[in-house]
Specification:
Length: 161
């Protein structure tokens, strides 16, 4: 079974970019809480809390903070982790597979070898058209794009080999 069906999922938003860094390094930036906290969130946001239990069913929790102090908590679980190829997580469940109050999306992040670089793809898969549209209107492409810019800066200039 492939995690990449032909074309996009029905309610999908995605970003793809080739990053001039090995995928092991980009994967580390996604899976080490102290590294993820340095780039997670759009410009102007910080991530004062990042907690990861890197196993299937393990907790993935972040709190992003806006310049005005407003906090944006997110919590879910990892569904799949294949170093350094793929990370899948969802907010549909919490630890212990307890259903969340409202499932919003499942995220599939892939790190493909591409001529010594990393072809990075982040796919946000939503349960319905309304959630997909809401996420797009929240600024998915701008926000996730700015996060990706920060991730690229981290892995290409700030992170040791």
């Amino acid at each position: 079974m492939s995690l990449h069906p032909p074309g996009n999922a029905q309610y999908e938003l995605s970003l793809t970019r080739v990053i001039d860094a090995p995928r092991s390094k980009v994967f580390r930036a996604w899976t080490e809480p102290d590294l993820l906290a340095q780039w997670w969130g759009p410009n102007g946001m910080t991530t004062p809390l990042c907690e990861m239990q890197l196993w299937v069913g393990g907790l993935f929790r972040t709190v992003m903070q806006a310049p005005d102090g407003t906090e944006y908590p997110n919590q879910g679980v990892f569904l799949d982790i294949v170093p350094p190829e793929r990370i899948v997580f969802t907010d549909a469940f919490g630890p212990g597979w307890v259903p969340s109050n409202k499932a919003f999306m499942t995220v599939v992040v892939t790190f493909e070898e591409h001529q010594g670089k990393t072809k990075y793809t982040a796919r946000a898969l939503h349960w319905n058209a309304a959630d997909c549209l809401a996420h797009e209107e929240m600024g998915f492409h701008r926000g996730w794009g700015e996060s990706l810019d920060r991730l690229v800066a981290l892995v290409t200039t700030q992170m040791p080999g």
